[in-house]
Amino acid sequence: MSYVLSDAWTWDTWFADDGDLYHAFYLKASRALGDPDRRHFHVTVGHAVSQDLHAWHEVADALIASDQPAFDDYTTWTGSIVRDPEGMWRMFYTGTTRAENAIVQRVGVAKSPDLYNWTKAGSEALCEAEPQWYEKFDGVSWPDEAWRDPWVFAHDGRWHMLVTARSNQGAPDNRGVIGHATSPDLDTWTVQPPLSQSGAGFGHLEVPQIASIGDRDVLIFSSLHGELTAARRESGERGGVWSVPVESPTGPYDITKATRLTDESLYAGRLLQDRDGAWWLFAFNHVDENRAFIGSLSDPLPVGWGGNGRLRVTDGRFDHLG
Hints:
Elements: E1 8-17, E2 22-30, E3 44-50, E4 57-63, E5 75-83, E6 89-96, E7 106-112, E8 119-120, E9 127-128, E10 147-155, E11 158-166, E12 176-183, E13 190-192, E14 206-213, E15 216-223, H1 230-234, E16 240-246, E17 259-260, E18 266-273, E19 279-287, E20 293-297, E21 301-305, E22 311-313
Antiparallel strand pairs: 1-2, 2-3, 3-4, 5-6, 6-7, 7-8, 7-9, 10-11, 11-12, 12-13, 14-15, 15-16, 16-17, 18-19, 19-20, 19-21, 21-22
């Protein structure tokens, strides 16, 4: 069954595997808020564990907002987890401040020896959008300054961070790109040019992740109908979790080739490999047939490569997407 908390909504999720238990970390907010749109600003990072990726047991929350002043004194949003060469777990996450009314997003880090007890590295962010390549908030083009959802991985002797970002070039509804930063040591990060180009038809590409499934690399991201360009919306396109095969984990990514992996019933997809080598898609249950928000973690969905060279959910649930 889906992982449902009776007293809280859960949404964006990221995972870690300690070799004994699978750990799910997720954005979480009380259902007592009434309106699910309020959840973004009354959020904690929740934590649950599982032996089999199906039955989950909630444990103590992992992160909350810092005391003022700090880059994350308003919200702690979506992230990812890696284990560093010394065996310490590092959670890279998105933070916003009350002073900026959560408009400007930045990335920071917390560390843990055991995935249960987390200590933030400090009150300063590791990186944020650089105006040389990325859009800065101007009050007109977009509702916020996007630099969020860090996905960190090692490749070719360096650490890489993918982020939800927006180019400073092109029509305002067509600036979504995969932002990029690099590090030699996970401590010092240098913002790089984006790994994709604007103009692919998306206002933003949320919760990006790169994975190597079999002998092929794939990028997934999420975007809803409302964040597609006007041209895509007018043609009848909808949103959901998207995927695009890529030649290299570090790009470049041709987002114009992206196709939907799911419809809008699921959002913020994550690919996870179990210890037997099988790959699964997780997401959060987004809306029901009446478009009412659900807010719970989905069951794992099997994924694999289709005959058309695209990643697909192999149980047939989304075959109607083509």
